[in-house]
DNA sequence: TAGATTGTTAATCGATTAACAATC
DNA sequence: TAGATTGTTAATCGATTAACAATC
């Protein structure tokens, strides 16, 4: 809403973090906050916060600061958390089950409407109130329910094949936990992908520990 | 090794990704690669690849390209994947079990030596060959085995308390999956933290889908 | 040697920080 | 009004890209 200048990629990447911190403040009953105070909490400069928040409309007030609730709602709206998009989960192994149970989809702009797996032992079970179906049933399911997004918790060997099938079935967005890098050039096909590489983060920790431990000598 | 100029933060953040792509090439039996070819595979410019790889020593050869295996080993060494650091997992719920089973710690610079949970139903069980102990046993365990890193798959309400106990017990690095932002200022205490906010990535996908779908009109 | 491809410098671009006038 | 704090411009910093000489 409001004026919406150009929101840079760097700002977009920070929005979820702002959203989390503002939510935390709301929980604590804080109704207004200055850029300086928020900067202390988040560990970024007040200058950057003002620059960032000003990208999408003048929600601050000189001499007062920002209204936490207004800002929170505005960021939710920019991120699209104020609507829900239908999503299906492919792969109900350890990781898939953890994601299904752990993630608050409804508060993140999604609704989990189907789960699919190859393992006969899982098919017919229910996870978070959602029936686990055979992967054979992906296409007929999509013809009826038209999910917009898919969460991939499957081995990298089958990611290419499954994602191609899903794209054919009309899926537009992927949250990909498999180790296969779903190609970025999907963008040209009108597909968006968020690859989650948990092991990248573990390797970064390894690097940081290495650096830390060698500094200590 | 070699000359090691200053490796910038931006480069460090890309190293795990380089490492994954080079590993993939090795699997395919590729022994040499040019910056141009790698740039096509990874979706970044050849210029950036040369700039990046040159930060840590002249591993390329004019007219030839890069030796995939040499580069792979070099990045592993920079990230510290060529040694193993002892780690414990706190929280053996859905997410903890998924992380324990799913993650190849040994190939990422870590060795999982202990798992802790509060749930009596889990204590005494074994996950990936590692015994689940009561969280009461964290301190005595640490006195004997001195783990360097801890993986936190626990509710955000207990993260502060547990992490303080672990720091007192000598833990230096955290891989934190709880929704609590382990403070960055830990760095001053000689502690490193990698926070994994899976929901941030889901919110980013929500934003990208919103943008994509609104463009289509 | 000729062709390929790096290493490296210089130019560009974008993001962060500093500063302060505007204004609540 | 005086004090606080934003909005916004200008300055700085760092990262990316382009270009080409060096060299395998």
Automatic annotation (TrEMBL), chains A, B:
Enumerate the UniProt keywords alphabetically.
Cytoplasm, DNA-binding, NAD, Repressor, Transcription, Transcription regulation
Residue sites binding NAD(+) per the record: 91-96
GO term, biological process aspect, one? negative regulation of DNA-templated transcription
**CoA-binding domain location, by residue?**
80-181
SUPFAM superfamilies per record? NAD(P)-binding Rossmann-fold domains, Winged helix' DNA-binding domain
The entry's DNA-binding region feature spans 17-56
Q: Where in the cell is it found?
A: Cytoplasm
- NCBIfam families registered for this protein in UniProt: PRK05472.1-4, PRK05472.2-3, PRK05472.2-4, PRK05472.2-5
Entry's family note: Belongs to the transcriptional regulatory Rex family.
Q: How does it assemble?
A: Homodimer.
- Mind telling me what this protein is named? Redox-sensing transcriptional repressor Rex
Q: Which organism is it from?
A: Merdimmobilis hominis
């Amino acid at each position: 809403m409001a004026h919406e200048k150009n929101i840079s990629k760097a700002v977009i990447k920070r929005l979820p973090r702002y959203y989390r911190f503002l939510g935390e403040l709301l929980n604590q009953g804080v109704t207004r906050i200055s850029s300086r105070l928020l900067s202390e909490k988040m560990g970024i400069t007040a200058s950057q916060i003002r620059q960032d928040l000003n990208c999408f409309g003048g929600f601050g007030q000189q001499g007062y600061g920002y209204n936490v609730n207004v800002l929170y709602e505005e960021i939710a709206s920019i991120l699209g958390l104020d609507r829900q998009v239908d999503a299906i989960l492919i792969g109900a192994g350890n990781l898939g089950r953890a994601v299904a149970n752990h993630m608050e989809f409804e508060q993140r702009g999604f609704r989990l409407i189907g789960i699919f797996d190859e393992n006969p032992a899982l098919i017919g079970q229910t996870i978070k109130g959602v029936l686990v179906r055979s992967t054979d049933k992906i296409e007929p399911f999509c013809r009826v329910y038209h999910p917009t997004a898919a969460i991939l918790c499957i081995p990298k060997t089958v990611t290419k094949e499954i994602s191609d099938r899903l794209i054919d079935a009309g899926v537009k967005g992927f949250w990909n936990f498999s180790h296969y890098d779903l190609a970025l050039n999907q963008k040209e096909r009108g597909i968006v992908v968020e690859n989650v590489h948990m092991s990248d983060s573990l390797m970064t920790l390894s690097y940081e520990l290495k650096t830390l431990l060698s500094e200590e000598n």
